[in-house]
Amino acid sequence: MLELAAALKRENPERTGAQIAWIPRSTLGWSPSERTLLRHFDAMELGSRPNGSPPRAFGRFEATRPNEI
After folding, report:
1. What span, in angstroms and rounded, lies between the C-alpha atoms of 8 and 41?
2. Taking burial as the number of CB atoms within 10 A of a residue's CB, which of 1, 15, 51, 62 is the most buried?
3. C-alpha distances in Å from residue 20, one per residue of 8, 26, 42, 53, 63
4. Which residue would you say has higher pLDDT here, 52 or 21?
5. How far is it, in rounded angstroms, from Cα 6 to Cα 26?
6. Is the pLDDT of residue 65 over 90?
7. Is the pLDDT of residue 32 over 70?
8. Rounded to whole angstroms, how far apart are CA atoms 62 and 3?
9. What is the rounded (10 degree) CA torsion for 21, 23, 25, 31?
10. What's the mean pLDDT in 9-29?
11. What is the mean pLDDT of residues 29-44?
């Protein structure tokens, strides 16, 4: 099932985890959760955009040193 999901992601990299989860769920009756698919895509390095850049993070805060806040 994960290989099918990876093939769907490679076919159209713009597809989201929810879209990919819906395809086997509607045809085969079940699919892994969206989060499982996203973890699998990250492990296979399919989580980047078609141009190769990673998705932009929203609202992330990173301190430059401990106890900076």
Report:
1. 11
2. 15
3. 7, 10, 14, 21, 35
4. 21
5. 17
6. no
7. yes
8. 34
9. -40
10. 89
11. 89
CB 21 within 8 A of CB 31: yes
**Distance, CA of 65 to CA of 60 (rounded, Å):** 15
CA dihedral (68, 58, 54, 6) positive or negative: positive
Q: Using 50, 70 and 90 to split pLDDT, how confident is the model at 21?
A: very high
User: What are the C-alpha distances in Å from 21 to residues 6, 12, 55?
Assistant: 11, 14, 20
Residue 1 makes CB contacts below 8 A (sequence gap 6+) with 24, 31, 32
